[in-house]
Structure formats: C-alpha cells, structure tokens
C-alpha cells in the first residue's frame, strides 16, 4: 500500500495524518498474496477441504440415511401391533405344572381384530409344544432314523396370521379359513423346512408326517415381511394344532400379530384387547411400535458422533497447515513488510492483511470441501435411490467452519508480522 501523502516516502508523518487501509485494498492484497504461489495455497487448503467436506458430508449422509431408515421403519414396524396372551402365562404359573391353560384368544380373534378401522390383516400363532418330535416324509421314520427332521420347529398359525406375514409363495398356496373351520391336516413349509425335507414343489401334493400324523403340504413360503421366525419351520392351521397337540406352553404363549395402515398402530394397540376380550381385556397385552422420531434421533447420534470427531481432527490439521504456511509467508515477506511499515502502514494493517489471507484460504477450502460433500451426498442418494436430505444450515456450516479455521490459524502469524520493525526488516 502506497500512502497518498508523499511526505511518508521519507519516513515522516505530518501531524493529523492517519494511515488508512481500505477494504478493497485489503482484499486485493490478500488475493495477490494467495495467487503468488497458487499450488502451495491449494495444498495448504487441503486440510480445510477435507475437514469441512467431511463435516458437511457426515451431516448430510446421516440425515439422508436416517430419513430412509425412518421410512422403512414406518412401513414395517410402525404398522405392526403385537398382542401377547399374558393371562395364559399367569394361569400357567398358578397351575404348578399340572397342565397347559387354554389360549385366551377367542377362536375368531383374527376376524374381530380385522373389524377395527385401520387393520389390514391379523392372526394368532404359537409354537406347538412337541416333545421329541419325529418328522419325515414317510410314516416309517423313527427318532433314530437319518430321515428324521425332528429339529424343525412346528408352529400353529391362523389363516389371518399367514396373510399378515405378507409371505412370498414359491410353490402352491396358503391354507385358508375353510381349512381352519374343518381342522384340515395341511401344512405350509418355510424355506428351511422345505430344503431339509427335500420338498421343492407341491404339485403332486407331498405329505409329511409329524409323530406319525400325516399332513398334506399345500404351499412353500420363501420369504415374509413379518413373522420371519416361522420361516424356519412348519406351519399348521391353529385349529388343527390345538386339536392334535393342545394349547401352547405358558413359557411360549400365543401371540397375535396385527398389520395396520400407516398411522393407525397406536390406536389399534389401545383398542385390540377390548375388541378381542370385552369380558376381560386384562388377559391380553398390546404392544405398540416405538416412536419413529426417537429411533431417528438415536440413529443420528450413533452415526454422527464418531465421524464428526474425525471431521474436527481434519479441521485441526487444516488449521495447522494454514498457520504454518502463513508463518512461512511472513518470514519470506519480511522485507516487504518492512517497506510497508516504512511507507506508513501501521502494525494493525499488517496484522489484518495476513489474517485476511488466512481467512480467505480457509474460505476457499470450505467452499471446495462443501461442494464435494454436497456432490457426495446427492450421488450416494441417487445410487441407492434415496431422497437426499440437506438442510441449508448444514451447507452453510462448511464455509463458516473454513473461515473460522483460517481466522484462528492466522492470528499468531499476523501478530508476528505486525511486530516486524521497519529498520530491522530493511537491513535483511
């Protein structure tokens, strides 16, 4: 900066004359200082680019992933109500092992639940209490036989429960209300049971034998959105299982699954016990899904804490790089600083100039890092067919973090530059 008053060229300052540094001159000098060595400036800003980019990318990807998880939770868990038979458990404890108490769900539990507004499908299921089961595809299979598939679990499930599971049928069909009313000895196999029993198709109506009792396999299920545990075994009509094997054990009581429309789960959970057992609703306990907002907050905390710490480390590394480069620039430009001081520049002008250079370097890194982070978030969302979620405040945090890092990093070099004495600088 060259002062307007020629008298300052001689190192004198007329009375009442104050040296000034305009903001245009300040910005011009800062940009010129950065462009003197553009390669070094870009490498110096690399730490800030990584730090601010990681900061914005972490917040954006966390919000995007949490939104996707929240969506999946809404269409699955948030539309599922579980009703437990607590009365049977209490009666079993009181029975002292004398026998299994009856199921507290009424025979038409599924139909009663489906009358509630907002219910799509509902049904009851339990684990059949078989001791040392012998299961095979022929009646002559024994417990000691290699063909015995006795380790397969056997489940009793109503026709409504099968519909609530939203199963994917690979062969055949599901049993229905007709089979339930007539206690038909039919079965539906999960993929594990079908593979272990060697049954891949049901076109020829294959049969399985459970403790010598024959069951016709009418369908094979390969997957299901709910009730996945039953995919590991054999599913029988609940009425048939109740007639042949009795009620479930109090250690594994009956349970109802209700699939609802979005937004109806909480209401159905309050209404279900009274609708199923108006005479004694306390025998049943309905469990509503957890709050989506609570789950999303937990996911946000779990995903972001570690990565935000890594982003902070990157910003610290970037700040150290800017401080080191600015300090080296001060040493290299000592003669220039001395000349400016001799021409009338005050120490505060020198300090402000170097702080502005370091802040501009931080801003440059913040802008580049934020741009790369936004591109990463959008690209990830497009690749996974998600909806990108980027709050405006999140995008602005990147450049702000860059400026703050550059500002703090440039304070010491700026103070060092402002303390340079003109005479000592010109002697070097």
Overview of the molecule:
By secondary structure, the chain is of the alpha+beta class. The chain has 2 domains: 21-73 and 294-427, no CATH class; 79-291, no CATH class. Helices cover 52% and strands 14% of the residues. The protein is built from 15 helices and 11 strands. Strands 1, 2, 3, 4, 5, 6, 7, 8, 9, 10 and 11 form an 11-stranded mixed sheet that branches. Strand 7 and strand 8 (213-224) form a beta hairpin. The radius of gyration is 37 Å and the shape is elongated. The model is unreliable at 1-17 and 94-98 (pLDDT under 50).
Architecture blueprint of SSEs:
Elements: H1 23-35, H2 38-44, H3 46-75, E1 80-85, H4 86-95, H5 109-114, E2 119-127, E3 135-136, E4 154-157, H6 159-164, E5 167-172, H7 177-181, E6 186-189, H8 191-197, E7 207-210, E8 213-224, E9 234-237, H9 238-245, E10 255-260, H10 265-276, E11 284-287, H11 292-332, H12 334-342, H13 347-383, H14 392-418, H15 422-427
């Amino acid at each position: 900066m060259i002062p307007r008053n020629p008298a300052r060229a001689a190192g004198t300052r007329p009375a009442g004359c104050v040296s000034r540094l305009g903001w245009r001159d300040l910005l011009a000098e800062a940009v010129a200082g950065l462009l003197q060595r553009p390669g070094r400036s870009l490498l110096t800003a690399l730490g800030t680019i990584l730090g601010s980019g990681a900061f914005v990318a972490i917040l954006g990807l966390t919000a995007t992933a949490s939104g996707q998880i929240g969506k999946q939770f809404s269409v699955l868990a948030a539309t599922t109500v579980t009703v437990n038979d607590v009365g049977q458990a209490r009666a079993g404890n009181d029975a002292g092992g004398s026998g299994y108490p009856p199921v507290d769900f009424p025979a038409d539990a599924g139909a009663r639940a489906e009358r509630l507004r907002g219910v799509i499908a509902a049904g009851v299921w339990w684990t059949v209490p078989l001791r040392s089961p012998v299961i095979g595809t022929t009646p002559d299979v024994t417990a000691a036989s290699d063909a015995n598939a006795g380790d397969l679990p056997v489940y009793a499930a109503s026709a409504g429960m099968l519909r609530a599971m939203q199963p994917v049928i690979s062969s055949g069909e599901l049993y229905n209300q007709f089979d339930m009313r007539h206690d038909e000895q039919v079965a539906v196999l999960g993929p594990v049971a079908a593979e272990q029993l060697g049954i891949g198709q049901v076109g020829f109506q294959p049969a399985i034998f459970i403790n010598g009792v024959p069951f016709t396999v009418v369908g094979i299920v390969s997957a299901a959105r709910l009730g996945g545990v039953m995919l590991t075994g054999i599913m029988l009509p609940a009425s048939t299982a109740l007639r042949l094997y009795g009620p479930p054990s109090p250690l594994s009581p009956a349970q109802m699954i209700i699939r609802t429309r979005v937004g109806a789960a909480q209401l159905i959970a309050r209404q279900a016990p009274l609708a199923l057992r108006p005479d004694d609703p306390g025998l049943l306990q309905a469990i509503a899904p957890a709050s989506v907002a609570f789950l999303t907050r937990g996911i946000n905390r779990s995903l972001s804490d570690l990565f935000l710490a890594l982003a902070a480390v990157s910003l610290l590394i970037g700040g150290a790089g800017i401080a080191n480069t600015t300090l080296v620039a001060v040493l290299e430009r000592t003669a220039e600083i001395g000349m400016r001081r001799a021409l009338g520049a005050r120490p505060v002008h020198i300090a402000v100039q170097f702080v502005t250079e370091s802040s501009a370097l931080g801003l440059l890194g913040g802008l580049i890092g934020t741009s790369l982070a936004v591109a990463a978030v959008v690209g990830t969302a497009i690749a996974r067919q998600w909806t990108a979620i980027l709050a405006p405040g999140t995008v602005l945090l990147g450049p702000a973090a860059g400026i703050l890092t550059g500002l703090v990093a440039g304070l010491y070099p700026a103070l060092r530059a402002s303390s340079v004495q003109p005479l000592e600088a010109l002697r070097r």
